[in-house]
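for the recovery benchmark. tokens below, seq after
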């Protein structure tokens, strides 16, 4: 991405990849892919499968299905709320899906003309060729030897019929001329369609690689209203704006053992618990609200981006006051409150303060969490350390919890590869050779030519070819996240970042209590014990309790 330095002086564009480009680019690249949909779904979201469709010749590929599913889920009318995609720019992903759909729509307009002229007008010949192709597909589902033996014979039948009709048609006049070319014109259409499909596939695969390399930004002229009555462009722009606003919500959801949606599962927990007693010589300490301590901790956490040691500052950190609601671990939908306490998708500051002071003990409503978030490894790793402050009777409890959202499935980072297969060498059957396959085969040409006339009827096309179902509750980042603990570096970063946060929370708490005439000796001792526990932090399933 290219950002502008808005400080006084000459405006010189600077290249700044930002802290969350890798995941954004990987997700965006899926919109341009041409790989098999079923294999992709099995790898990234096993168990969440969409509709199968009427026939495999209408089956969409990854890019077609992914783009339509994401656009419908993020911009569709009356859509459900989305889970925030921390470490990602959801708007850019959706814009790439829209841009890819525009490219395919332009291709389908040309293919539709070819299909109607050379296919629909010469339907008997086109159906005979399709029947032969269907037989070839059936042979391939059996064994390679059977296809190699009988496949050419199946395709030879319509070829011989076409030659016979062209040489000696059974009718005279107009219908005789029609019979001569009824099987030949579909072949001409197939040649024209193949040229269009190859050009489209090359263009989309080049964009796939460019997006992963960060060399391509989406271009959406249709999202700019041309006049006041341009309702389609206005609705698209409003949908994208709503997506951006929803990304910055401060209302999240705790889904039991699945952790906080958008932040990941809880893997660590540290507690500072002690009674509040006044210092010696005083009858009582200065009263305070829990928000006062939260604000003190917030100020201290904001200082993590500074260090007295060179390169010791924590990169990519942000501090946020979050409001977290509880949903079931198997919930398929989330919701956010409305009313005067909400400003769009965010809860207003005064409502957050009241929520922190009420603490929510014994209540079903939302609760306040102070969150420190770190977007690391170009967005591949999102570590969030949450702090809660509660006072029951005269006992203060400060809880620190670590949540980690790991990288997305590695298949999203795959670049386009040359299609190839291995076969035994002639005369040396014990050795193998690699055979490069054509970029587009005959079945792909037929598939796109058959789908093209239905591009204006997406509902019918979905019934014919099937769809891709997205995991719910859906968030572009959390839907395909994996565990970070298989990576040594990501595991180390997740564990190490919790230590300075806990230290900052301890220091701020003791300093605050001392300012309010609270005896901090026992708190300091508890803090030393807590720091000793931090010497050997190990992640564990913190939200799973072995209890009846």
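predicted aa per position
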């Amino acid at each position: 991405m290219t950002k502008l330095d808005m400080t006084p002086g000459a405006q010189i564009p600077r290249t700044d990849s930002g802290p969350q480009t890798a995941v954004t680019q990987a997700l965006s690249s899926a919109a341009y892919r041409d790989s098999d949909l079923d294999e992709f779904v099995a790898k990234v979201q096993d168990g969440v499968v969409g509709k199968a469709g009427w026939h495999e010749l209408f089956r969409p590929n990854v890019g077609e299905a992914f783009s339509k599913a994401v656009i419908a889920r993020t911009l569709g009318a009356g859509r459900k709320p989305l889970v925030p995609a921390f470490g990602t720019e959801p708007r850019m992903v959706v814009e790439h899906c829209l841009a890819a759909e525009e490219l395919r729509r332009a291709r389908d307009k040309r293919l539709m003309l070819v299909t109607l002229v050379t296919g629909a007008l010469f339907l008997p010949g086109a159906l005979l060729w399709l029947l032969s192709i269907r037989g070839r597909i059936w042979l391939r589902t059996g064994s390679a030897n059977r296809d190699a033996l009988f496949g050419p014979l199946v395709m030879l039948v319509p070829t011989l019929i076409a030659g016979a009709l062209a040489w000696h048609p059974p009718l005279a006049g107009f219908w005789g001329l029609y019979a001569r070319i009824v099987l030949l014109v579909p072949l001409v259409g197939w040649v024209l369609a193949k040229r269009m499909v190859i050009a489209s596939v090359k263009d989309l695969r080049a964009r796939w690689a460019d997006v992963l390399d960060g060399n391509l930004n989406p271009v959406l002229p249709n999202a700019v209203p041309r006049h006041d009555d341009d309702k389609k462009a206005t609705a698209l722009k409003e949908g994208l704006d709503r997506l951006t606003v929803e990304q910055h919500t401060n209302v999240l959801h705790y889904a039991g053992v699945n952790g906080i949606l958008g932040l990941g599962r809880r893997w660590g927990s540290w507690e500072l618990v002690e009674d509040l007693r006044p210092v010696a010589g005083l009858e009582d300490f200065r009263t305070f609200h829990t928000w006062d301590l939260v604000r003190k901790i917030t100020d201290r956490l904001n200082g993590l981006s500074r260090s007295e040691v060179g390169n010791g500052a924590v990169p990519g950190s942000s501090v946020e006051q979050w409001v977290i609601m509880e949903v079931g671990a198997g919930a398929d939908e989330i919701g956010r409150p409305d009313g005067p306490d909400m400003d769009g998708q965010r809860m207003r500051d005064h409502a957050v303060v009241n929520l922190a002071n009420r603490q929510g003990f014994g209540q079903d409503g939302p609760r306040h969490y102070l969150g420190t978030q770190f977007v690391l490894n170009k967005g591949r790793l999102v570590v969030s350390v949450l702090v809660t402050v509660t006072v029951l009777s005269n006992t203060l409890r400060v809880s620190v919890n670590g949540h980690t959202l790991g990288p997305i499935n590695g298949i999203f980072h795959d670049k386009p590869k040359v299609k190839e297969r291995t076969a035994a060498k002639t005369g040396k059957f014990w050795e193998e050779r690699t055979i490069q396959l054509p970029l587009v085969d005959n079945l792909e040409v037929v598939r796109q030519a058959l789908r093209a006339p239905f591009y204006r009827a997406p509902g019918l096309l979905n019934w014919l070819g099937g769809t891709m179902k997205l995991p719910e509750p859906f968030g572009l980042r959390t839907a395909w996240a994996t565990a970070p603990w298989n990576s040594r570096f990501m595991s180390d970063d997740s564990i190490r970042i919790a230590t300075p946060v806990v230290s900052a929370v301890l220091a701020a708490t003791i300093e605050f209590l001392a300012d309010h005439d609270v005896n901090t000796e026992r708190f300091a001792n508890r803090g030393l014990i807590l720091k000793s526990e931090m010497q050997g932090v190990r992640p564990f399933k913190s939200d799973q309790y072995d209890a009846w």
